[in-house]
Design a protein that fits this description.
- It comes from Cyprinus carpio (Common carp).
- Belongs to the lin-54 family.
- It is globular and about 95 Å long.
- The protein is α+β, with helices and mostly antiparallel strands.
- Helix 10 packs antiparallel against helix 11, helix 10 runs parallel beside helix 12 and helix 11 packs antiparallel against helix 12.
- The chain is built from 12 helices and 24 strands.
- It binds a DNA duplex through loops.
DNA sequence: GAGTTTGAAACT
DNA sequence: CAGTTTCAAACTC
C-alpha cells in the first residue's frame, strides 16, 4: 500500500490539514454523494505560485533552490490532468514594481474548456475578497486586498453560484508578532456592512530560519479573504484594480508596502522553489478558503521581486506552504509563467502522535498520490512512501476514468509540510489565539475534547469503494496515535462540528537543510460552515443509550455529526473514539453503501419532486405521524414506499386536515405574536408621550393608558383569537371563553405597563 | 417523566 | 431476502 511509512512520518514535518468542507455548488444535488457523471467538472485546482520575495511563495520546496524555473514549474504544476478549472478569474501574475506595490493580475478570460491550465492561478470569482498581509523577512508588512467588487460572480454554470454566500475572512499571521491590518479589512472591502455576515479566519505562520539561512527568516504572512456575495448584483463586473493597504508594523526597518491587486493580465516571474500545497475538501461553502503560502527568501537574494501566491479557488481551501532554500540565489527573479492548479484533494500525513491533521501538497505532491473515487466529488490524496526512487506516475488523467487511485508521482522528501489545522465551528467568527509552538508535532487545540476521525491506512483499500457514500465534505485526515500513516475519514459535518477554534500549524522542513529543518508554523482559524449552514441546523440532541452513537439509530451519527450536547450514554461518536467510530462507519457502509446519503432525494423540479430514496415501511401510523420518514420530511409517500394504509398522499383528506391544522396553528402563533408585539409597542409608545391628563394620587390610573391605539391593538388580539377559535372549529362557548381570556391578558398587560410607568417615571407622571 | 408505540436499523 | 430483534424517537398519559 502506498501509504507513508512510519519512518517517513517521523521525518516529515508537522502537517495539518484543513478539512473544512466547502460546497462546490450552491445547490448540491441531494444525491451529491452519488457518483457524479463522468463529465462533471472536478473541483478547480488552485495554482499556488505567486512569489513574494520576502514573504511567500507557493511552490513547494524543491530539492534544490537552484532548480530551474522550468523544473519548478513542472513540479508546481498540478500533477494531474484532472485539474478542473471552472470559469474563474485567474491571477496570472503578481508583480512587484519598484515602488513596492504588489500587483496581482487576474487572467481576463476563463480557462479553456478542458479546464486544464496547469500554470494558472485561479481565483474564485464568487464575491471573494482577499486580503493578504504579511511581513517580509525584514518585517515589512504586506497586505493585499481584493475589493468586494473583484469577485463578483462570473458566469455561473447553472449551479447558482451567484447566490448570496457567506463570507469568511481568513487571516494568516505570524506567530508571536502582531499583525495589524486585519481590522481594516472591512474598510478595504469597501463595504463594512457586508462584513457583518462575514466570518473570519486567521492563519498564522511563523517561519523559523534554517541553519543555512543567514538573514532573518521570520516571515509573517497574513492572508485574509473575505467572502461575501451578498449584495452583489453585478456578477460580471470586476473592479479592475484594488488597492491594498499597508499594514503598519512594529518593525521599523522598512516602510510598509502597498500592494495593488489588479485584474489585468500580465506575466510575472514566479518563484521556482518548491512548495507544498494543501487543498481542502471542496464542500459546503464555496467561498471559503484561503491558501497560505509562505516562502522565505534568502536575505541575500539580489532581487526584490516578489511573487505572492494567491491560492483561492472556488469551493476550495488550499493551504500552501512554500519553503525555498534560504540560500538559493535562484529564487529571486525566477518566474513561473504557468500557475499551477491544485486539486482539492486532501490528504493527511499521519504522525506518530498526530493530534493534528496533515496536509499534503497536492498540486505538486512529491509524496502524495491523488486518489480519485469514482463518482465522488471529493478528491483524496494518498501519501506514498518516499523513496529515493520514484514511483511510476500515472498520468493524472482526469476525471473519473480511473476509479480509484492515481499513482504517486515521484516522491521528493524535501519540503515536506505538516500542518495542524484548527477547526472552528462554523457558527461564529472565531478568533485565533496564537499559541506557542514547541515542537514539530502540533496538536489541534480545542477548548473541548479534540475530535477527529481516523481511518487506519490499512483499512483504506476496503473503505475506498465506499468513499462516495460518505457525507459531504468527507476528507481524509491523519491517523491518530500511531506512527503509521493513516487516513482519517471525516465527513464534513464532523469536521465542521468541531466545537472549538482550532489552530493550524504548518511546519515545513527541507531535507536539504543541514541541521535544523526550517519550520514554518502556521495556525489557521477556520470557520467550517457557511453562514447559512451555521444558522440552519441546531440538531436535536440524541438520547442513545445502547448504540454508543455508532449506529444509524443515532441521528447524530447518521447525519455525519459528532454528538454535541447530547444526552447519550457511553457515546463513542466523538474524536476520543476515532477508531471505533471509523469501524462503525465502515460497518455501516458495508451494510449499505449509501448509508450516509440523504434519504430525501431532490428532484430537478424542486421540492415537489422530493421523495424518500427508499420509501417508508409504515404499517400503523398511516404515514401521518413522524414515525414515518416521509411524513417527517414533509413529503408524500411514493410508489416506492411499502407502507400499509398510507394516508400520506396528495388527495388524502386526513393529510389535508393535518396540514390545515398545522398551518392554522402556525398562523395563530404568528398572529398572536404580532398582536402582542403591537400591543406592547403601543403601550410603550404611549408611555413615552405626554403625561395623560388624568392622574390620581400623583400617578396615572391604568385606564388612562387605554388610548385609541391601545384599544385598537387589544381589539386586534381579540379578533385574532376569535379567528383562531373559528379556524379550529371551536364551539361558541369555547370561543367566547378564549376571547375573554385574551381580553383578560390584554388588560393585565395594560395594567402592568401602567404600574411600571408610575414606578419608572414618577417625574413625568 | 414514565411508559407505550412505532418503524428503521441491525441481526439471524 | 425474509423474519426477528434491537433501538431510539415519537407519542400518550
Amino acid at each position: 500500500m502506498d501509504v507513508v511509512s512510519p519512518e517517513l512520518n517521523s521525518l516529515l514535518p508537522d502537517e495539518i490539514m484543513d478539512t473544512e468542507a466547502i460546497t462546490m455548488e450552491e445547490e448540491l444535488p441531494v444525491e451529491h454523494l452519488a457518483a457524479p457523471p463522468q463529465s462533471e467538472p472536478e473541483p478547480p485546482q488552485v495554482p499556488m505560485e505567486t512569489e513574494v520575495p520576502e514573504i511567500v511563495s507557493l511552490c513547494p520546496a524543491t530539492t534544490s533552490m537552484q532548480m530551474s524555473s522550468a523544473s519548478t514549474d513542472a513540479q508546481c504544476s498540478t500533477s494531474s490532468g484532472t485539474q478542473l478549472l471552472l470559469n474563474l478569474p485567474k491571477i496570472s501574475s503578481v508583480t512587484v514594481p519598484a515602488n513596492h506595490q504588489l500587483i496581482i493580475n487576474k487572467v481576463a478570460s476563463a480557462p479553456a474548456a478542458d479546464g486544464k491550465s496547469p500554470g494558472t492561478a485561479v481565483l474564485k470569482p464568487e464575491g471573494q475578497k482577499l486580503l493578504v498581509a504579511g511581513l517580509s523577512k525584514t518585517g515589512q508588512p504586506i497586505m493585499l486586498a481584493l475589493p468586494h467588487t473583484w469577485n463578483k460572480p462570473a458566469t455561473t454554470q447553472g449551479t447558482g453560484d451567484a447566490k448570496a454566500q457567506p463570507t469568511q475572512i481568513k487571516m494568516l499571521t505570524t506567530v508571536g508578532k502582531p499583525v495589524i491590518a486585519v481590522s481594516s479589512a472591512s474598510q478595504l472591502m469597501g463595504s463594512s456592512s457586508t462584513l457583518q455576515a462575514q466570518q473570519l479566519k486567521t492563519l498564522q505562520i511563523t517561519k523559523k530560519p534554517t541553519v543555512s539561512t543567514a538573514g532573518p527568516m521570520i516571515t509573517k504572512l497574513i492572508i485574509t479573504k473575505a467572502l461575501n456575495n451578498k449584495g452583489l448584483s453585478s456578477p460580471a463586473s470586476v473592479a479592475p484594480v484594488v488597492t491594498g493597504r499597508v499594514v503598519t508594523q512594529s518593525t521599523p526597518v522598512t516602510p510598509p508596502r502597498t500592494i495593488t491587486i489588479g485584474e489585468t493580465v500580465s506575466t510575472v516571474p514566479q518563484n521556482t522553489s518548491g512548495n507544498s500545497k494543501v487543498a481542502i475538501s471542496p464542500l459546503k461553502s464555496p467561498s471559503k478558503l484561503t491558501v497560505v503560502s509562505v516562502a522565505s527568501q534568502s536575505p541575500n537574494s539580489p532581487q526584490k521581486s516578489v511573487t505572492l501566491p494567491l491560492n483561492v479557488a472556488l469551493g476550495q481551501q488550499i493551504l500552501t506552504v512554500q519553503q525555498s532554500a534560504a540560500t538559493s540565489p535562484a529564487k529571486a527573479g525566477t518566474s513561473q509563467p504557468n500557475a499551477q492548479t491544485v486539486k482539492p484533494v486532501q490528504t493527511v500525513g499521519g504522525v506518530g502522535t498526530s493530534q493534528f491533521k496533515t496536509i499534503i501538497p497536492l498540486g505538486t505532491p512529491p509524496n502524495v498520490q491523488q486518489i480519485q473515487v469514482p463518482g465522488s466529488r471529493f478528491h483524496y490524496v494518498r501519501l506514498v512512501t518516499a523513496t529515493t526512487g520514484s514511483t511510476t506516475a500515472q498520468s493524472g488523467g482526469s476525471t473519473n476514468t480511473n476509479p480509484s487511485i492515481q499513482q504517486a508521482k515521484p516522491v521528493m522528501m524535501n519540503a515536506a509540510v505538516r500542518m495542524s489545522v484548527p477547526i472552528v465551528p462554523a457558527q461564529n467568527i472565531k478568533q485565533v489565539v496564537p499559541k506557542p509552538l514547541t515542537s514539530a508535532a502540533q496538536v489541534v487545540t480545542t477548548s473541548q475534547t479534540p475530535q477527529r476521525l481516523i481511518m487506519p491506512a490499512t483499512h483504506l483499500p476496503q473503505i475506498q469503494p465506499n468513499l462516495t457514500s460518505l457525507p459531504p465534505g468527507t476528507v481524509l485526515a491523519p491517523a491518530h496515535g500511531s506512527g503509521n500513516m493513516g487516513y482519517a475519514v471525516l465527513p464534513a459535518p464532523y469536521v465542521t462540528q468541531i466545537p472549538q477554534p482550532a489552530f493550524v500549524t504548518l511546519t515545513s522542513s527541507s531535507t536539504f537543510s543541514t541541521a535544523t529543518p526550517i519550520q514554518t508554523q502556521a495556525r489557521l482559524s477556520l470557520n467550517g460552515l457557511s453562514t447559512s449552514e451555521a444558522t440552519s441546523r441546531p440538531r436535536k440532541p440524541c438520547n442513545c443509550t445502547r448504540s454508543q452513537c455508532l449506529k444509524l439509530y443515532c441521528d447524530c451519527f447518521a447525519n455525519g455529526e459528532f454528538c454535541n450536547n447530547c444526552n447519550c450514554v457511553n457515546c463513542f461518536n466523538n474524536l476520543d473514539h476515532e477508531s471505533e467510530r471509523l469501524k462503525a462507519i465502515k460497518a455501516c457502509l458495508d451494510r449499505n453503501p449509501v448509508a450516509f446519503k440523504p434519504k430525501i432525494g431532490k428532484g430537478k423540479q424542486g421540492e415537489s419532486d422530493r421523495r424518500h430514496s427508499k420509501g417508508c415501511n409504515c404499517k400503523k401510523s398511516g404515514c401521518l405521524k413522524n414515525y414515518c420518514e416521509c411524513y417527517e420530511a414533509k413529503i408524500m409517500c411514493s410508489s416506492i414506499c411499502k407502507c400499509m394504509g398510507c394516508k400520506n398522499f396528495e388527495e388524502s383528506p386526513e393529510r389535508k386536515t393535518l396540514m390545515h391544522l398545522a398551518d392554522a396553528a402556525e398562523v395563530r402563533v404568528q398572529q398572536q405574536t404580532a398582536a402582542k408585539t403591537k400591543l406592547s409597542s403601543q403601550i410603550s409608545d404611549l408611555l413615552t408621550r405626554t403625561t395623560p391628563a388624568v392622574t390620581s394620587g400623583g400617578g396615572k390610573l391604568p385606564y388612562t393608558f387605554v388610548t385609541k391605539e391601545v384599544a385598537e391593538a387589544t381589539c386586534d388580539c381579540l379578533l385574532e383569537q376569535a379567528e383562531q377559535a373559528e379556524l379550529t372549529t371551536q364551539p361558541q362557548a369555547v370561543a367566547e371563553r378564549l376571547i375573554l381570556e385574551e381580553f383578560g391578558r390584554c388588560l393585565r398587560r395594560i395594567i402592568s405597563f401602567a404600574g411600571k410607568a408610575k414606578t419608572d417615571c414618577p417625574i413625568n407622571c
